[in-house]
Amino acid sequence: MNLKVKHILVVDDSRSVRVFFSDIFSKRSDYRAEFASSGEEAVEIFKNNHISGKDRFDFVLTDINMPGLDGFATVEAIKKLDPNVKTGMITGFNIDDYIKMALEKGIFNIICKMDSPDEIIKTIDNLITGENIFGIYSYLDPETPYKTIKVTRTDMLKAAITEILEYSKDYLDEEKIYGLKTGLVEMGTNAIYHAYGYEKGSNVALKENEDVDIFYGIDKTKLVVLILDRSGSLSKEKVLGQLNKGVNPSPEDLLASGGRGIYLTRYLCDKVVVNIEKEKRTEVVLIMYFNKEYIESKPLLINQL
């Protein structure tokens, strides 16, 4: 079987980062990586490959903070050459500082440099292929067992949260349990009320086609909870807009009683992934690592088919 080799351009002004990625990709037979030390060099390399048409790039991964063309400007210039090329960003700084710019520029995925090489590669794989985004098995180690809870009434959500927290207490400390509980409450109620248009706080019995399923499992390093609704009513723009309101609130946002759920969840959980297939399904994946010292800078991971 011929392995599809993914041609990737990595852009970073730091030599050590380029060496880091060179080492990662050299161990993968399904990747071929080229490197640029600046946005300007990246655009030139991309232009030459694009004009030749023989060896186009499948993906461009660029640092945000660079002299000259920064990451946003680099992506913008490359998208003018090929609007369909897939791109992602990476940074060692606080990703929240770029949320507003990401919203303005339509950037929905920013990877943290401090994440593990395996996690970085998995994220890049997902961004390129889109094949391993949906489903809890995409976030757990292979062959890890997991449990499923079907929620059809609001009172069942409370029972589901209690079950998951009880299951988690031997693996997570009190601070992480609190973060997980907040994420479960916020994202669980969103899946029931907002996804299907019910009034928040009311007692709801979902209709036959209004499914909410919660999956959870634990592997060697982490707990993963996936909350699925089958409305597909969210959009990546709405998710990023809500995150921006949490990070950069206006006076009106500070006074508003709702809309902070996804921001609080991302702030308190180690990692949050939002997957959307429009008008079909929405998944919110909550990941809590057993390592108490897990990276503080939270990646931005919003995927939409």
Give a quick set of tags describing it.
305 residues; alpha/beta; Heat Shock Protein 90; eleven-stranded mixed β-sheet; 10 helices; 23% strand
- Major pleated sheet: 11 strands, mixed
Total discrete domains: 2
Please count the beta strands (DSSP E, at least 2 residues each).
11
Number of distinct helices: 10
Would you tell me which CATH topology of the largest domain applies?
Heat Shock Protein 90
Overall morphology: globular
- The low-pLDDT segments are none
Reading the helices and strands in chain order gives EHEHEHEHEHEHHEEHHHEEE
Major sheet: order of its strands? 2-1-3-4-5-11-9-10-8-7-6
Write down the Rg: 20 Å
Overall residue-averaged pLDDT value? 92
The CATH architecture of the largest domain is 2-Layer Sandwich
Q: What's the N-to-C terminus distance?
A: 27 Å
Care to describe what's here?
The chain has two domains: 124 residues, Response regulator (Rossmann fold, 3-Layer(aba) Sandwich), CATH 3.40.50; 169 residues, Heat Shock Protein 90 (2-Layer Sandwich), CATH 3.30.565.10. An eleven-stranded mixed sheet has the order 2-1-3-4-5-11-9-10-8-7-6, sandwiched between helices. Helix 1 links the parallel strand 1 and strand 2. The protein is globular, with a radius of gyration of 20 Å. Helix 2 packs parallel to helix 3 and helix 6 runs antiparallel to helix 7. The protein has 305 residues and is of the alpha/beta class.
